[in-house]
Amino acid sequence: MYTVFLAGGIASGKSTVARELSLRGARRIDLDQLSRRVLVPGGACLREIVAAFGTDLVEGETGELDRGLLARRAFSSSEAARRLESIELPHIRAELARELARDTHPCCCVVEVPLLDRMGDVRGLADEVVCVTCPLPLRRLRARGRGMDPGDFDARAARQPTDDWLRAHSDVEFANDGDEGELLDQVALWWDAHARRGWSCGAADAMGETHA
């Protein structure tokens, strides 16, 4: 199975690309969802977070994490954010490795990666790294159009790798500085080039032809 890491900052269009690839037959894994999975009540990751950030982060009866409280504490400083990452990321990497090891998808698996610069040696699991880039002012405008507070956007974007960094560490770039149709055209060309090499995605192959 061919594994693709799909990277991009907030409001870059990464989810649009991932959704299109899923429609064409790829399996889609979102690292944000895996990060929630490793925070199950009683799990090792959650125990480490509680030890670092306070026992009041979990509800007494259910053991559920108060994510809002954790976010306020973890993102109160760059030091606290790095501390949270140092706890979470090894668990997320291990969960991803397990997920990929048991995958028998005949086509490919696309892994959405919000923080490619934090993935370390797990990037070796990818056959190809694809990034979605978009100028920061345009991303801010799009995020605001979705109702996101500009200050929240800036804080999140500041913790993510820049487009220049992503270009330097990716095999392919999808430039999302136009409309959605232009972005999807780039996806179609990339998909069709790979499909000709032998991907087998069933009915999705026919869909790929209609998008070409």
From TrEMBL:
Family assignment from sequence similarity: Belongs to the CoaE family.
CDD domains: DPCK
Major localization class: cytoplasm
Keyword Chaperone appears in the UniProt entry: no
Catalysed reactions, semicolon-separated: 3'-dephospho-CoA + ATP = ADP + CoA + H(+)
Swiss-Prot/TrEMBL keywords: ATP-binding, Coenzyme A biosynthesis, Cytoplasm, Kinase, Nucleotide-binding, Transferase
Record function comment: Catalyzes the phosphorylation of the 3'-hydroxyl group of dephosphocoenzyme A to form coenzyme A.
Pfam family, one: CoaE
GO molecular function, one term: dephospho-CoA kinase activity
Signal recorded as keyword: no
Matching SUPFAM superfamilies: P-loop containing nucleoside triphosphate hydrolases
Lineage: Bacteria, Bacillati, Actinomycetota, Coriobacteriia, Coriobacteriales
Compartments where found: Cytoplasm
Xref: InterPro entries: Depp_CoAkinase, P-loop_NTPase
Pathway(s) of this molecule: Cofactor biosynthesis; coenzyme A biosynthesis; CoA from (R)-pantothenate: step 5/5
Protein name stated in the entry: Dephospho-CoA kinase
Binding of ATP, residues: A11, S12, G13, K14, S15, T16
GO terms under biological process: coenzyme A biosynthetic process
EC number: 2.7.1.24
